[in-house]
Amino acid sequence: MEIDNLRWWHWIVLSLAIGALLGWANSGIPEPVRYRSLDSFKFQEYVLMHPMTFKGKSYPEITDIVVYPIGKIPDTAATKGEKYQLVTCRYIEQATGGAQGFEYVSAYMTTSIPFDLKVYDPSLGIKTYVAKRGDTLHSVTAAMYGKDTAEGRQAIVDANPRLRNAETAAARNEFWPGFRYAIPWNPADMKTVRDFLDAAAKEHDWVRPHYAWWKETRYSYVTWMGGCFLVFGVVIPALIRGISGGRKQKEGGYDLERFSHSKEPAKQPTTTAVTQKDMDQLAEIEAALQASLKSGDSPRMTQAAPAETTAAPAVRVLNATKAEPIQPTTPAVPEEEKVFGGEYYPVAKTVKKHD
């Protein structure tokens, strides 16, 4: 089957199949190949750090932040199907090779859900708690989050350097009276890195994160299938039909026999050429015709009959100068005499003749 003989629904099915395959291949979280790993604490520091100035221009410490959809770690005994989120970015680093200045390095970071906030910044909506005598990590967690949970205690520890750097569990559990402690988001709210970046972008104009929505499964399928349908289901078939139609018209018209249901090939018209034998035969007929006119007789045209057919009986030609007797024809059978009679209706009866 030639490509220009494909029907439109063939192209539609082909386009949707290609789109679904490409949508599946381009959905999900990519592998950060040739990217440096960046820990969550440095990432949060770079985001909240003021831009540096170099030769009169301002450069943010971190840029090109892209947040990918939430993924799920395969179920194992250690992970238990934990969710995570990938973030790619570029951050400033001292130029290598002894050159002056700096350069941006591509990096990636994976964060857990809920997001582990490690940097204290009141602009992010983090609460501040002034410790009282007798406060412990358990009591503060229950007072701030409404419930004492292991996730809540770990969030408070990670947000406060004094607790995070404590050497013993008793030191982490002790709160100094009058000391200010940062209380991050409640882990039960399942905040993500997107919430952190959105809050930072409201306070700092140099923070401009992007979300890779096209990597979500539903959007990936819709985008790729819609694009492939437009290209392979509409544009390419229209171009092929336009090119093939123009070529057939150029070759001598559009062939309507291709739509015929009969299996027999169309009969080609035959043409008969005039041969030299036909010309000689015509000359003989003209000569005989002229001779007949000179002699005063009626012209008699003769023509050689084809060998395959039986010769037709000759037509008798009348001569005006000589009377010829007329041959009698076969006498017709006399019609029998009939007598019509009857009481009500005339009835034809045959009468037998007596010798």
Could you report the average pLDDT, rounded to the nearest whole number? 77
Tally of strands:
11
> Helical residue percent?
25-40%
- Principal-axes geometry comes out as rod-shaped
Order of helices and strands: HEHEEEEEEHHHHEHEHHEE
Helix-and-strand structural type:
alpha+beta
Low-confidence stretches: 302-310
Main sheet attributes: strand count, strand direction, barrel closure: 5 strands, mixed
Strand order of the largest sheet: 1-6-5-4-9
Backbone CA Rg: 53 Å
Q: What's the end-to-end separation, in Å?
A: 91 Å
> What's the total helix number?
9
State which percent range the strand residues make up: 15-25%
Written overview of the protein:
This protein has 355 residues and is an alpha+beta fold. Among the domains are: 3-25 and 218-248; 29-115 and 194-215; 127-184, Membrane-bound Lytic Murein Transglycosylase D, Chain A. It contains nine helices and eleven strands. The strands form four sheets. The chain has a five-stranded mixed sheet, covered by helices on one side. It is rod-shaped, with a radius of gyration of 53 Å.
Give me a quick take on this structure.
The protein contains nine helices and eleven strands.
